[in-house]
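TL;DR need structure tokens for one chain.
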Amino acid sequence: MALSLRWKEPSVACLVLGLSLHAQSQAADWCAQPELNVNGLSKHFDDASSPQSDRRNEINTGLGLTCALKGMGRWRDEIEGGFYKNSHFTTSFYAAYGIYYPLSSVVSAGLRNIIATGYPTDTYKTGLVAGPLPTVKLELDSAISLNLSFIPKRNAIVFANLGYRF
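>> reply
TL;DR here they are.
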């Protein structure tokens, strides 16, 4: 049985936005750089003959809030939480910790360790998924980034979101 919270999504979006505005006033204490994430697209690389290949949601709308932490030397780290419409058309809530190494002034690469709810229990025993996701961050300008995460499994997935620093 998959958990469906469709009726709560506008409430959650308002909560995330409200918390982000409140967090902005408190950010100097614990958050080096707050970022609103607009979760969006994924691409599944299923085998075309797979019965699942035509039933995946690849428009994964949602919102998240990322907080850049103090980092460790050249490594940058951050925490993130939010929600999105997952590949099974169910709302997922997630929390993540990411650590990235800058390869240039525009590109950073690293891992996001994530835990997410809302996955069918016939696919996952608990309805939760967790694990490290290789991620590339592209700094499009001083306020906007594009985050690409790779989910390395049999039917690999690339997930993209845009970040807006405020």
